[in-house]
Amino acid sequence: QVQLVESGGGLVQAGDSLRLSCAASGRTFSGYTMGWFRQAPGKEREFVAAISWSGGSTYYADSVKGRFTISRDKAKNTVYLQMNSLKPEDTAVYYCAVMLGSINYYTSARYPYWGQGTQVTVSS
What we know:
Elements: E1 3-7, E2 10-13, E3 18-25, E4 32-39, E5 46-52, E6 58-60, E7 68-73, E8 78-83, E9 92-100, E10 113-114, E11 118-123
Parallel strand pairs: 2-11
Antiparallel strand pairs: 1-3, 3-8, 4-5, 4-9, 5-6, 7-8, 9-10, 9-11
């Protein structure tokens, strides 16, 4: 049973930084892709970033490229999302998710396993 537990969300001001963590358990993740998605009130869930667990290849949405960095610590089975230069439009619930392979990594429907989410609020 795969379990994902996010942490690190909070209330910050525009321009600040936050680091989200996602602790994964329940299996080995070789061959899997770990993704971060977010959902703002009244909006659809959108892709933020993803990382190949084995090779470490990273992928980003254009809206966060250059500001956010995804990484993973294999020893801790944890994925991180370092968020810098935060903007009010980054306000959302952020979710960690896991999928097998990497095809269509930007599509939420490809991910069968999800965490409970962590709230990020950026004030102007």
